[in-house]
Design brief:
This protein is mainly alpha-helical and 455 residues long. Helices cover 81% and strands 0% of the residues. It is globular, with a radius of gyration of 22 Å. The model has no long low-confidence stretch (mean pLDDT 89).
């Protein structure tokens, strides 16, 4: 087991990476559909289809990045260089995604949206797959990985809170309250977050270190890596569970602004709702390490998703005028949702060790790219479903909505997300890597590394 303990500075440094990503992740999941329909000016069903097409390609691109990172050798390691190199392109692409080109017809706007969003998602992969993989090589200690994952997710939600708390004030600041300047306001707001993201990524690069080395110096072969991944049973299970959890989150996030604008009737209240959700995500994360150390990662994940299902379904019957109950259930659901993601990242690191134990080959980047791929697929399906469901229920942007459309929006905050949580529970029930199993695997891998270093 890796003997060098991680310092507080390094844990914070690792957290900065997801703070950077999460600012834009939250902008995309909470505001991008709204930006495209109400600011940019294209139909919700078109946006839903675009999300599906571009994100499927983007998700397929993730393993390519993982394979490339596994074969990278620099004085900074395999994964950290990508964080250094791709930070600035990430910021530029983020601004272009929230830019509305002038004097362009609807067809031109759709093409522009497809191109800029596709580029943004590919760059997102180029920095986030190596960033996620970094967890697998900073420490081999399972409990320390869970703690590191918790730091990551706390900073992720801090980044989300920064975005959610500042996006509306920044848009109002840059537009001066003039709705005719909304497009410019969104572009400038994205620019502020882009600068912050670049700084956070560079701090992540500077304050972290790669330690865990493969037990074999054999050059990785792509065919063998892909074959190993294809027969990695725990990987497939966690992939399904992660996709399902992201469908749950993506539908709730994407529909929230429509819920407040068209059902509650007061869009200004969304900031309170969203920031409260992020705060209780962090509360959930704070409970993850002590609870999972007591009952295990699998059981902690399982019960969090069961409770999220119950709370989500109950949300349907809350009246739009009852802000107290809306916020109470937002807090409860967010606490459950926040607790599962540190567990997912920690379990992906366990799966990397499991694969190395089974095959003698370590493919950290390829396996961790599956975590990003599951995020993208879940986000893809959830985002596409949000657009399609809005169209199905007769949503019309910037108009008074029909009773049917309002009911559809309510369902997107309750029953539809609950389908994702139920699927996630089904997958995690059959996940085979217990704490006892992982302790035995880690001990054997440490023995192999010790034997290899002595030869």
């Amino acid at each position: 087991m890796t003997t060098e303990k991680l310092s507080l500075r390094e844990k914070i440094g690792y957290g900065f990476g997801d703070a950077a990503s999460s600012m834009f992740w939250k902008l995309f999941s909470m505001y991008l559909m709204f930006f495209y329909t109400d600011i940019f000016g294209i139909d919700a069903s078109v946006v839903g289809t675009m999300f599906l097409i571009t994100r499927i390609w983007d998700a397929a691109f993730d393993p390519v990045v993982g394979i490339l990172a596994d074969r990278t050798q620099t004085r900074w390691g395999k994964f950290r260089p990508y964080i250094l190199w791709v930070a600035v392109p990430f910021g530029i692409a983020g601004v272009l995604t929230f830019t509305t080109p002038g004097e362009m017809d609807v067809t031109g706007k759709i093409i522009y949206a497809y191109v800029t969003y596709s580029i943004m998602m590919m760059i997102y992969s180029l920095i986030n797959v190596p960033y996620a993989s970094l967890l697998g090589v900073m420490s081999s200690d399972g409990k320390e990985r869970t703690e590191l994952s918790s730091y990551r997710m706390i900073f992720a939600f801090i980044g989300s809170i920064i975005a959610l708390a500042l996006v509306d004030p920044l848009v109002r600041f840059f537009t001066g309250g003039d709705t005719a300047q909304a497009a410019m306001g969104w572009q400038m707001t994205a620019g502020v977050f882009a600068v912050l993201a670049v700084v956070f990524f560079w701090l992540n690069f500077a304050w972290t270190k790669e330690r865990v080395q493969p037990i074999s110096d054999e050059k990785p072969r792509l065919r063998e890596d892909l074959r190993d991944l294809g027969v990695n049973y725990p990987w497939w299970i966690l992939l399904g569970s992660g996709i399902s959890a992201l469908i749950f989150n993506s539908i709730r996030d994407g529909a929230a602004i429509y819920y407040f604008k068209y059902y509650v009737g007061d869009q200004s209240l969304i900031s309170w709702y969203l920031v409260l959700g992020q705060a209780f995500n962090i509360v959930g994360i704070l409970f993850v390490t002590p609870v999972s150390n007591k009952i295990g990662k699998k059981q902690t994940y399982l019960w969090a998703m069961v409770l999220a299902t119950i709370f989500s379904i109950s949300f349907y019957w809350i009246d739009g005028t009852n802000m107290t109950m809306i916020l109470v259930f937002q807090a409860l659901i967010s606490m459950c949702a926040g607790s599962i993601f540190p567990l997912l990242w920690s379990m992906y690191a366990d799966i990397t060790d499991y694969s190395e134990w089974k095959t003698g080959r370590r493919a950290t980047g390829l396996i961790f790219s599956s975590s990003s791929m599951s995020q993208k697929f879940g986000w893809t399906l959830g985002g596409a479903l949000t657009g399609w469901l809005l169209a199905w229920y007769g949503f019309q942007a910037n108009e008074v909505q029909s009773t049917e459309a309002q009911d559809g929006i309510k369902l997107m905050l309750s029953f539809f997300p609950a389908i994702g949580t139920v699927l996630s529970v089904v997958f995690i029930l059959i996940y085979p890597l217990s704490e006892k199993k992982m302790e035995a695997i880690t001990a054997e891998l440490d023995a192999r590394r010790a034997a290899g270093s002595s030869n």
